[in-house]
Amino acid sequence: METATRLLRLWEASFHGLEALTIWVAGGSEIPRQADGTVSDTTVEHITRCVQGTLDMHTRDFDSNLTLLEVGLVRLGDKVRVRLGRGRTLRSDFWSTVTDYLWRGFFVRDTSRNQKKLVEMLDEFDKVATRVVNEIDLLRNTWESKEWVPTDVDRLVGGPHYSPYHWVVTQGSTGVREGVVSENCFIGLAAQMGMLPYVKAKVSQNPDLAMSSPTRISLLANATFGFHYHSLRRAVSRYVIQVPTFRQRLRTVKYLLHHLLHHGADPCGPIWPEDPKFTVSDQVLLLADPSDNEEEKEKVE
């Protein structure tokens, strides 16, 4: 605990830019130098490997992204309220905060222990988000068109099932002006972010979740178009982090295609309820050419 506290203070004092050589010297070790007093690239690489190895050894069972996701379960509501009244919309405040925490799930290390924990945490995140959206009355503040406001419900819902009033639908506004909102679910949001372990776990429990419908944004559509697509539809504020999930989304698409074909789905059938021209095969071709995908241009951490 003493070492961790010192490292935290060093990280803060270095303006969040702590180098391996800084940790090396702060720990009491000397940096080997060449005859001219400089430090060779080989030495830098060696020290970096040593520091990384030491950190890995002491944090073998610790996943920082899993921990930050767990923090989100406690802090989501607090963070949303802190953002309120800063000049942006309520929906932007909510989705910016959701994304700040939820994207951590994409970077969780792929181990059996972590996957089980990730599924449990994402289930809980869905419940927490459902509570928060109703506490801030996001239902009444979502729709851009004041000419149509839902009158048959007074609360948004959560859970693994599709609904036109799932809190995830507040991510987008397409169709609202006509009084129609495509159904979505939390698993759809996970598919957008390429969280394949969660999608697999939920689809294995209920295979029908992967099936398309004229009224829903299917898991395949969510995974194909991704989180960035909804931003292009003005679904989320431009301030929201765009998660670099292309490769993992592609694996999610492949998994869902295999599942659908195994269950007798039409590979040329539509996957997007608002335009039947968007077929499964079309979107596979879209994903096959990453050069046109903006997310692929971003550095994957």
User: Helical segment tally?
Assistant: 12
Structural class by helix and strand composition: mainly alpha
Taking the alpha carbons of the first and last residues, their distance comes to 27 Å
The percentage helix is 40-55%
Low-confidence stretches: 174-178, 231-243, 289-301
Share of β-strand residues = under 5%
Q: What do the pLDDT scores average to? A: 76
How many strand units?
A: 0
Strand and helix order: HHHHHHHHHHHH
Shape, per Cα inertia axes: globular
Major sheet size, sense and barrel closure:
none
* Cα radius of gyration in angstroms: 22 Å
Give me some keywords for this one.
301 residues, mainly alpha, 52% helix, globular, disordered C terminus
Q: How would you explain this protein's 3D organization?
A:
Helix 4 packs antiparallel against helix 5, helix 8 (186-192) crosses helix 10 and helix 10 runs antiparallel to helix 11. Residues 174-178, 231-243 and 289-301 have low confidence and may be disordered. The two termini are 27 Å apart. It is built from 12 helices and no strands. Helices cover 52% and strands 0% of the residues.
What is the secondary structure topology, with strand pairs?
Blueprint: H1 2-13, H2 20-26, H3 41-58, H4 64-83, H5 90-102, H6 112-135, H7 138-142, H8 186-192, H9 196-205, H10 219-232, H11 246-262, H12 280-288
